[in-house]
Specification:
By secondary structure, the chain is α+β, with helices and mostly antiparallel strands. The strands form 7 sheets. Strands 12, 13, 14, 15, 16, 17, 18, 21, 22, 23, 24 and 25 form a 12-stranded mixed beta sheet that branches. Its EC number is 3.1.4.11.
Length: 722
């Protein structure tokens, strides 16, 4: 342990001293940069060798993973020049690109790989209150320009502006004096943390706390139990739960030992995952996973190989890694003839760059089951010659090995996600039966065909080796009648977004349906997936690389059930006897519309939209309901002038929800602008059925779907029968 501790110390010292590392973007772009760990052990500064003093920085908390060796396209392209033990990649959260680095020696590379790993682990293990202190100190070190560890009132005011706080000067000045224990007219790091906490005291939480506190000072176990029963509607087990919460969130030892909760502990609970709007019981795997595949929504990506748009953007195996890490369970591979007999993956007939099929399959093999153990469907668009199809078949067999599922189900239903754990299913063209011509012709049923509607249907040759590996057979859709009488369960049709109709509900109780964005969306924009989910379509493919409302809805639906990429469809969409029609939700058997009240109380530490010192946001909150057409609705609060820090709205929005099991709720915070479009600040999307009633925090996410801790909105939720 000591040796490890000693080595850990040496790594940090080496990183703090700083060193030159080569940043690699491609085979030809390799430049020296100076990197060093700041004294706070939380920030890494870097600059070009020619820049005199201007360092840029990034925070360790932005790093999601460190990969050692040649584990990125850029580093693989220079593998012959730089050995793997000197190379490493930093992967950032969200859609920010990777940083590929080469150290001068193995020892230096190890110092960074182990050092950053250890610092990330420290961050992971922090509790909420330490995380908040950490966040405040990060800001403090930005403001402490001369790095003497202290800031005066003027600097503190400037810093608060950067943190989006617009405060009353006298109020802030008196708190500053209180926090300045050393009477030096400056605050050190910890004093600033205290100052900030006094400034951000939450009056609306204090009022609620005092409503339930018998003595006005603390909540006894009974007081807290009453709060959990009355407000959070917890019912049974509230008394035991109150004790667990005191144990978990009360910072004061004395209070904890007396089974009491202080206002600090109460706030810690309200801002914790348990106090969030998302019901923790639905966070982990809670659904029955043993029903046929057609009974599940499956998280699906379109043109998975693209990082940007579909005309000239880069293709990359990184795009597969990103999608698979987000729990995606259906990826797409467009295969074309490449040089030297090597099939390549890219968006055909465009300028998007090409990647080797074998690299894509290797990446899929490595990352397929990191986020979820449930089956992965690989949708193949095959434009290759017979010779290159034989190469494709060999790669799929050799690289995927036992993971590849080849025996087609002969039963009347598809197998379940549970039965197919850790299996990869290929979807593509397949011969009807073995007696067909071994290089028979199959019609081209895919997006390329949709793009060239005017040309006659292409007849394409298929090689038997590849056909044998296909589990889900792509078929041309004739009619619902034909499907009902003749379709086999493993046959799947694909539809462009505009062709999906409500007759699908019955079809989708037993067949898998894939929907993809129209070929006109060359900018990789997305369509709204909700209309397709309402009809029971399982594989609603979206461009994962494009942030926005559509991906927010996809992330929102798939955050529940352990992020497994499979969500059991509501029973109304699985019943064949009594068909549900999303256009007439009130005609169903057990029709019980609900009233949904959202009181938007306050906001906390909303991020700035523009990083200008003087700029403060004017926030408003909009609540949007997505679901059956009758449920689609949005309402917003008024905007608050100049306060991103602790805006108070206290406004109640009310909705009627006709089909709760298909509804998603999206909370959006925007910066009001009367002259132009409002700017996006943050959002959070949640299935209606996963919402917890009572006083809750909604933890906001960035445009990329990553956390922007500690930004949140504080709401009260009430759901009643109409």
């Amino acid at each position: 342990f000591l040796a490890n501790g000693e080595r850990g110390h040496q790594n940090l010292e080496a990183m703090k001293a700083g060193m030159f590392l080569r940043k690699v973007k491609s085979r030809t772009w390799k430049r020296q940069r100076h990197y060093k760990l700041q004294e706070d052990c939380k920030t890494i500064a870097y600059k070009s060798s020619w820049a005199i003093n201007s360092y840029s920085t990034f925070s360790i908390s932005d790093v999601e993973a460190v990969r050692a060796g040649h584990q990125s396209e850029a580093l693989l392209s220079v593998a012959d020049e730089f050995p793997a033990d000197r190379c490493f990649t930093l992967v950032f959260r969200g859609r920010r690109g990777n940083l590929d680095l080469v150290a001068e020696s193995t020892k230096e590379a190890q110092a960074w790989i182990q050092g950053i790993g250890a610092l990330m682990e420290n961050m992971e293990n922090m509790d909420e209150s330490t995380k908040l202190d950490q966040w405040i100190s990060d800001w403090f070190s930005k403001a402490d320009l001369n790095k003497d560890g202290r800031i005066n009132f003027k600097e503190a005011k400037k810093l608060l502006k950067m943190m989006n706080v617009d405060m009353n000067e006298e109020h802030a000045s008196s708190l500053f004096k209180m926090a300045d224990k050393s009477k030096s007219e400056t605050l050190e790091d910890q004093e600033f943390v205290e100052f900030y906490k006094m400034l951000t005291e939450r009056a609306e939480v204090l009022d609620l706390f005092q409503d339930y506190s018998s003595d006005g000072q603390s909540l006894s176990q009974c007081d807290l139990e009453e709060f959990l029963r009355e407000e959070q509607l917890e019912g049974e087990g509230s008394y035991e739960h109150a004790l667990q919460l005191i144990d978990r969130y009360e910072p004061s030892d004395t209070a904890r030992m007396n089974y009491m909760m202080s206002v600090d502990g109460f706030l810690m609970y309200l801002t914790s995952p348990e106090g969030s709007i998302f019901n923790p019981e639905r966070q982990d795997l809670f659904q029955d996973m043993s029903q046929p595949l057609a009974h599940y929504y499956i998280s699906s990506s379109h043109n998975t190989y693209l990082m940007e748009d579909q005309l000239k953007g880069p293709s990359s195996v990184e795009a597969y890694i990103q999608a698979l890490k987000r729990g995606c369970r259906c990826v797409e591979v467009d295969c074309w003839n490449g040089s030297n007999g090597e099939p390549v993956v890219y968006h055909g007939h465009t300028l998007t760059s090409k990647i080797l099929l074998k690299d894509v399959i290797t990446t899929i093999a490595n990352y397929a089951f990191k986020a979820s153990e449930y089956p992965l469907i690989v949708s193949i668009e095959n434009h290759c010659s017979i010779e290159q199809q034989e190469v494709m078949a060999r790669y799929f067999r050799d690289i995927l090995g036992d993971m590849l599922l080849t025996n087609t189900a002969d039963s009347s239903e598809l197998p379940s996600p549970e039965a197919l754990k850790r299996k990869i299913l290929l979807k593509g063209k397949k011969f009807e039966n073995e007696s067909e011509n071994p290089t028979g012709e199959v019609s081209d049923e895919d997006e390329a065909a949709e793009m060239n509607k005017d040309s006659p249907k292409l007849q394409q040759n298929l090689c038997k080796e590849l056909s044998d590996l296909i589990f889900c057979k792509s078929v041309h859709f004739h009619s619902f009648e034909h499907s009902r009488t003749s379709a086999k369960p493993n046959e799947m049709s694909s539809f462009s977004e505009s062709k999906a109709r409500s007759d699908f509900v019955l079809h989708n109780t037993r067949q898998l349906t894939r929907v993809y964005p129209s070929g006109m969306r060359t900018d990789s924009s997305n369509y709204c997936p909700v209309d397709m989910w309402n009809m029971g379509c399982q594989i609603v493919a979206l461009n994962f690389q494009t942030a926005g409302m559509e991906m927010d809805l996809n992330d929102g639906l798939f955050t529940q059930n352990g992020c497994s990429g499979y969500i059991l469809k509501p029973e109304i969409l699985c019943k064949r006897e009594r068909l549900f029609n999303p256009e007439n939700p009130e005609k169903r058997d057990d029709y019980h519309p609900l009233l949904f009240y959202v009181k938007v109380i306050s906001g906390q530490q909303l991020p700035k939209v523009k990083q200008k010192a003087w700029f403060i946001v004017d926030p408003l909150v909009r609540v949007e309901i997505f679901g059956v057409p009758l449920d689609q609705a949005k309402q917003e609060t008024k905007h608050i002038d100049n306060n991103g820090f602790n805006p108070l709205w206290n406004e109640t929005l009310q909705f009627t929800i006709h089909t709760p099991e298909l509804a998603l709720v999206r909370f959006v915070v925007e910066d009001y602008d009367k002259a132009s479009r409002n700017d996006f600040i943050g959002q959070y999307t949640i299935p209606f059925t996963s919402i917890q009633p009572g006083y809750r925090h909604v933890h906001l996410l960035s445009k990329d779907g990553t956390s922007i801790h500690p930004s949140s909105i504080y709401v009260h939720i009430k759901i009643t029968e109409q």
